[in-house]
Specification:
Elements: H1 7-22, H2 32-47
């Protein structure tokens, strides 16, 4: 990924990423179980490095 210093390009990129996220699938409810699983996967990934 290229980091852009031009504010207009940065704004366009941010909007593009936000839209991509909104259109990426069904929404999820990030409750406690979601975050516990997220942390578990992150811990596992870090152990494998």
């Amino acid at each position: 990924m290229t980091i852009t210093l031009d504010p207009e390009s940065a704004q366009d990129r941010l909007e593009s990423l936000a839209l991509e996220g909104l259109l990426s699938g069904d929404p999820i409810e990030p409750g406690p179980a979601y975050w516990e699983e997220k942390h578990r996967r992150l811990d596992e990934s870090l152990r494998q490095q």
